[in-house]
Design goal:
The radius of gyration is 20 Å and the shape is elongated. The chain is mostly helical.
Length: 116
């Protein structure tokens, strides 16, 4: 259990600069203003969800790699690591495709010439 805790701490500490740099320019808008459109709100919410779920998927990829490296010839543990890696990569693919499909769906009315 102590090894797991140490590995988790090292992973989180090594990724914290990446998370800090990934934030980029954060703009806080006045929630009472009527300037925000539904399209902007949907975009903001989906960006945060993709960032959160993508970060979790990356952590699972790291965890699967740690499991695979520490399997020490144990076939069951190596198979569990392969499954973890497979599902995490599939999760990342689904996240990216969902974002692309949503972006296309939101931009479709504009590209078809349908405006307010």
């Amino acid at each position: 259990m102590k090894k797991l805790f140490n590995a988790a701490c090292i992973t989180i500490l090594s990724l914290s600069p990446a998370f800090a740099l990934a934030v980029g320019d954060v703009v806080i808008k006045d929630p009472k203003s009527d300037a925000d459109t539904l399209k902007e709100i949907i975009g903001l919410v989906t960006d945060w969800i993709v960032l959160l779920v993508g970060g979790i998927a990356v952590l699972f990829i790291i965890w699967g790699g740690i499991l695979y490296v520490t399997s020490s010839g144990n076939k069951d543990r190596a198979e569990q690591a392969k499954q973890t890696l497979t599902y995490a990569v599939l999760g990342l693919i689904v996240i990216v495709l969902a974002k692309v499909i949503l972006s296309l769906a939101v931009g479709l009315p504009t590209s078809l010439g349908i405006t307010n």
